[in-house]
Design goal:
Number of strands: 0
Radius of gyration: 19 Å
Helix content: over 70%
Strand content: under 5%
Shape: globular
Distance between the termini: 31 Å
Order of helices and strands: HHHHHHHHHHH
Largest sheet: none
Number of helices: 11
Length: about 220
């Protein structure tokens, strides 16, 4: 993300992207992990309350390397929320629900940011025409795009993403064991596919579809 902004050479874009990167690291990651923790707590895992992760405190959720990755390229991670699966009667089902809450929080946050952008362009068009307004507009656009992108990415049914925990509830024991035995190799392949954009292209396609739908939805009241 920052790398793309730096290559643009536009000072305003670079400055706003830096602010957007900070927002993503200190707001998006905590919201994502808090969603996991809150749903786990509500579903019966009371140990979450004493883990320190049932809060929006960025220090409880930020992984330094994952934060740097998000800031630089829009792909990263936070500290995994430590959920106790033995606290549930049906661990696989409950873990799937908890896993889904993280990406859904990303999509909801993206929807809120898009609504604010649409609202400002309708009620304060003059403000959005000045430099400060343009900065706000770029900030809302960039943060919404990356937040939704992260939500879609995390829904992929691949180990290292929340999507795998969701589909894991429906896998046969033999299939699950085979995937877990090859988890490290799968992760390496996923990283290669991501950086060669083979994986990034379909994620961007789905993200752009959701973004366009959200803009259409947010424009309805106006």
């Amino acid at each position: 993300m920052l790398l793309r902004a730096l290559f643009s050479g536009d000072i305003l874009t670079i400055a706003v992207t830096v602010v957007a990167a900070v927002f993503l690291v200190f707001v998006c990651i905590p919201v994502h992990e808090l969603a996991h923790g809150y749903v786990a707590y509500k579903r019966g895992d009371k140990s979450i309350k004493t883990s320190g992760q049932l809060s929006l405190d960025p220090l409880a959720h930020i992984d330094p390397l994952g934060a740097v990755m998000i800031a630089l390229i829009g792909f990263g991670w936070g500290k995994p929320c430590r959920v106790n699966p033995y606290a549930f009667k049906n661990p696989k089902k409950e873990m799937a629900i908890i896993a889904a809450s993280g990406p859904l929080s990303n999509l909801l946050l993206g929807l809120v940011l898009i609504f604010i952008r649409v609202l400002l362009n309708v009620v304060a068009p003059n403000f959005m025409g000045i430099v400060m307004g343009q900065a706000v507009d770029i900030f809302l656009q960039v943060t919404a795009q990356i937040t939704i992108w992260l939500g879609v990415l995390n829904l992929l049914p691949i180990p290292m993403f929340d999507g795998f925990t969701i589909v894991r509830a429906f896998l046969k024991p033999q299939t699950e064991e085979m995937v877990l035995q090859n988890q490290q190799m799968i992760m390496i392949i996923v990283i290669i596919l991501f950086f060669t954009r083979i994986l990034a292209i379909p994620v961007e396609f789905i993200s752009n579809f959701i973004i366009e739908f959200f803009y259409w939805l947010c424009a309805l009241p106006f």
